[in-house]
From TrEMBL:
This is DNA-binding response regulator. It comes from Streptomyces alboniger. Signal peptide: none annotated. Keywords: DNA-binding, Phosphoprotein, Transcription, Transcription regulation. Gene3D superfamilies: 3.40.50.2300.
Amino acid sequence: MRVVLAEDHFLLRDGLARLLAAFGHEVAAAVDNGPDLLTALMDLRPDVAIVDVRLPPGFSDEGLRAAVEARGRVPGLPVLLLSQYVEPLYAHELLATGSEGVGYVLKDRVSNGAQFIGSIERVAGGGTAMDPEVISQLLVRKARDSAMATLTAREREVLECLAQGRSNAGVAEALFISEKAVAKHIGNIFPKLGLPPSDTDNRRVLAVLAYLER
């Protein structure tokens, strides 16, 4: 897997590069600012980009802007955002470019290298990897939605897990319930929200994210 890495803090950038190399992935470019990130994405067309939202020169949202522009030029270019903050607007702008191959992870919640690499690989494969806190904020935005109000507390928990990019097995593990129970809850959730049924984990995730972005 070829990766473009954008992070302005040297120690974190170097640490991420070493972690990726340890798992057999190639860092095609490691940059520390927005303009260089956009150039690298356009020139190298990596399998995935790992992008700090706030980059020089302005330290506002240059990383996000470069990623959004790159996905506009190369639809579906996989991007995993890294941020210190929960900002639903960032997730909204990234998801507006398409729900496939996107991720949003909070830096201070990355505590397991293998799990983080798994998130990167999932995004590179066209899946999603959304931090639970980000999904919680997106759900808050939909709290007054009449369809959301029909969900039970457990169904909301299942919906949140799905939006994070979890499979049925992953939802079952997170909520300490059986996969059969997960399937039953999903069977109730989708009709309530007016979502089309799907037999694949990824399509279910995309449907949920699309709903949260309406």
